[in-house]
Amino acid sequence: MDILVWGGLGNSDYLEKMMSFSNIYLYFWLKRKKGISRVYIGCLFICILMDYGFMTNIIDNMLSLCPVSEDTIQELKKCMILCRFPKKYQLIKENTFCKSAYFIEKGMTRSFWLVNGEEITTSFSWEGGIVFSMDELYYNKPSEEFVETLEDVVVYKISLADLTRLFQTNIELANWGRIIHQNEYRRLHRSHKERLTLPAKERYEEFKQQFPQICQRVKLRYIASYLGITLPTLSRLRAKK
């Protein structure tokens, strides 16, 4: 299983030092190898780092919700650990204490309950989002749901203890936390209302308008589960276009 955990990459000064050190080290180690140049190795390492994104999507999403200063971003970065997980990896498991939250820089996840052996999808998260167990963060109880990666993901992990401390001591992050919870409440309220009042076809049409990126990247059975309809029903609705 391809799992990478790299601590300290949230700190830009550390990144700069690591890039310099790695280029020098790889240059001398590979100097004896014919046909491999320092420029190639340097570019290779930079490409690897660029793939992780330096929290670009995460920061952009935060700034789209509320003002966040550079000092606050740096304070948040100090608590981060860069991780990479493969598709189908469970970041959070039912009836366990995860002790961490995950900011998604690249990739997508889904949350689901396991009821009588059936997976019931409750939400999706993608670039710029954050996933964690609300039961654990706010009530000190084990998670009631799973969070699983739908693609290979690049995430920044933060302990729930650090996240709680930042919410309590940093007004900008407290405001950001309030807004993401406010948006999540709105999503849940809207989803509940649509399930109770709309037929399956209209539910799917509303879903496509709200979450076009999910329709392009997620298997139909997960969307059907989220909408509370069967996969054959959703397939028929799509075929009628």
Report on this structure.
The chain is of the alpha+beta class and 241 residues long. The protein is built from 11 helices and 9 strands. The protein has helices at 12-30, 38-52, 56-65, 70-77, 134-139, 160-169, 171-197, 200-210, 212-217, 220-227, 231-239, and strands at residues 4-7, 81-85, 90-92, 100-106, 109-115, 118-125, 130-131, 146-149, 153-159. The strands form 2 sheets. Strands 1-2-9-4-7 form a 5-stranded antiparallel sheet. It has a 4-stranded antiparallel sheet with strand order 3-8-5-6. Strand 5 and strand 6 (118-125) form a beta hairpin. The protein is globular. The model is unreliable at 8-32 and 36-52 (pLDDT under 50).
**Cα distance, first to last residue?**
40 Å
Strand content: 15-25%
Element order, helices and strands?
EHHHHEEEEEEHEEHHHHHH
Largest sheet: 5 strands, antiparallel
Give a count of the beta strands, DSSP E runs of length 2 or more: 9
Q: Supply the helix-strand structural class.
A: alpha+beta
Low-confidence stretches: 8-32, 36-52
Cα-based radius of gyration, to the nearest Å: 21 Å
How helical, in percent, are the residues?
Answer: 40-55%
Strand arrangement in the largest pleated sheet:
1-2-9-4-7
Quick one: overall form?
globular
Overall average pLDDT? 85
The DSSP helix count reads 11
